[in-house]
Write a structure and sequence with these properties.
With about 425 residues, this protein is α+β, with helices and mostly antiparallel strands. It has 2 domains: about 280 residues, FAD/NAD(P)-binding domain; about 140 residues, Elongation Factor Tu (Ef-tu), domain 3 (Beta Barrel), CATH 2.40.30. α2 runs parallel beside α10. It has a 6-stranded mixed β-sheet with strand order 6-2-1-7-17-16, with helices on one face. The protein has a 6-stranded antiparallel β-sheet with strand order 10-11-12-13-9-14.
Length: about 425
């Protein structure tokens, strides 16, 4: 044990539990603060740690899936939540779903069993002082603490996540698209996906009749849609509303026809190397399956691979690209780390993963060792690269996706085989890194 070095972790969700276990296992005196049961957020009801407030599914388990690869990497990095999930799983086909109450109870018992870890049931309203501090307060962080976080981050704190879908560049059908900026201003910054009148009317009818996701009470507060109306809500105002809005064709001419399209969806680069594109103006609250069905009616997106689906809900997060190092530490304060959804990772396991990496880097800092930063060929490294990518302007949370990984040296057309090859490469690199520790 290293009694002279103290670690404080704020928040007993999945990320906080993973971070605290990493530092306690390394021998550092670790205090984990959790405000339950003294105070509950609008979404929480259990006194246990690592409470799952929405779905009980932790997504796919097979290695040939992004979610499955992520969980396998986490296992090899010493995760506490993934083994617990496997012990209390319930039947869910190819997904790893859990008995949520048994899961949080088991994680709580495993966390409390750590010899150097102390759980304090108290609300934290300020950034604590310690040799290393990890803020893993979650998307429903209290107002008092969020105010202090906002001070530390220069006001770069968002309270509502209104995100458009992202598609992989290599899945686009460019025979139904063209590259051009409006009125030829600013270079070839956009990929334009044109629709003729018949295609637009088919798409519009599907859009206004598509099924939306149900919002929780804590997502329906005033402000969710301010300045960022869902595309389906805008479309419901009239057949031409979005054709004169985000799908306006003015200033564009389709080189395939020589005419201005009836309507056009514009795609904008999501990352510096142009492997992912954002559907401009398509913030949406449609169910994920409906997004795939409806947006694929746009000819250029007929076979598109969705790296991330659009979401519309409360999700407190900092502008990590301008604030965090790849260690998950604040650039201007290297002993203050962030973990969980507050960093801009999206999903249960993604949040837990960030806790592992923040905890490992807190340990490295306290031991005077080089930081622990994984390469982008791993899913953990790719997600870290995304949330710390300085080129991102309109930053929105992201979950695990193969679209985040750099391509293979050889081109594999079969998607299943390609994903399996990406996973194999990732785990080989990760094992080599772990062996060298």
């Amino acid at each position: 044990m290293n009694p002279e070095k103290k670690v404080i972790v704020v928040g007993g969700g999945l990320a906080g539990c993973e971070a605290a276990v990493q530092t306690a296992r390394a021998g550092f005196d670790t205090t984990l603060y959790e405000m339950k049961p003294l105070r509950f957020s609008d979404a929480h009801e259990s006194e246990n740690l690592a409470e799952l407030v929405c779905s009980n599914s932790l997504k796919a388990e097979r290695l040939g899936s992004a979610a499955g690869l992520l969980k396998e990497e986490m296992l090899r990095l010493g995760s506490v939540t993934v083994p617990c999930a496997k012990e209390v799983r319930v039947p869910a086909g190819g997904a790893l779903a859990v008995d949520r109450h048994a899961f949080s109870a088991l994680v709580t018992s495993r966390v409390l069993a750590q010899p150097n870890l102390h759980l304090v049931r108290r609300e934290v309203t300020d950034i604590p002082e310690a040799d290393a501090v990890i803020i893993a307060a979650g998307p429903l962080v209290s107002q008092a603490l969020s105010d202090k976080i906002s001070e530390q981050t220069g006001g770069f704190l968002s309270f509502y996540d209104a995100a458009a879908p992202i598609v992989s560049a290599d899945s686009l059908d460019m025979s139904h698209a063209f590259v051009q900026s409006r009125y030829d201003r600013g270079g070839d910054d956009y990929i334009n996906c044109p629709l003729n009148k018949e295609e637009y009317e088919l798409f519009y009818d599907a859009l206004i009749h598509a099924e939306t996701a149900q919002l929780h009470s804590f997502d329906r507060r005033k402000g969710v849609y301010e300045g960022c109306m869902p595309i389906e809500v805008m479309a419901a105002r009239g057949a031409d509303t979005i054709r004169f809005g985000p799908m306006k064709p003015v200033g564009l001419r389709d080189p395939n026809t020589g005419h201005r399209p009836w309507a056009v969806l514009q795609l904008r680069k999501e990352n510096a190397d142009g492997s992912m594109y954002n559907l401009v103006g398509f913030q949406t609250n449609l169910k994920f399956g409906e997004q795939k069905r409806v947006f694929s009616l746009i000819p250029a997106l007929a076979n598109a691979e969705f790296v991330r689906y659009g979401v519309m809900h409360r999700n407190t997060f900092i502008h990590s690209p301008s604030l965090l190092e790849k260690t998950y530490a604040l650039c201007k304060k290297p002993n203050l780390f962030f973990a969980g959804q507050i960093t801009g990772v999206e999903g249960y396991m993604e949040s837990a993963m960030s806790g592992i990496l923040a905890g490992r880097n807190a340990v490295r800092l306290l031991k005077g060792q080089p930081p622990f930063v994984l390469p982008s060929v791993t899913m953990c490294g790719a997600l870290t690269d995304y949330i710390t990518d300085r080129s991102l302007k309109d930053f929105q949370p992201m979950g695990a996706s193969f679209g985040l990984l750099p391509p293979l040296d050889e081109k594999i057309r079969d998607k299943k085989m390609r994903y399996e090859a990406l996973a194999k490469r990732a785990l080989a690199v990760l094992d080599e890194i772990i062996d060298q520790e």
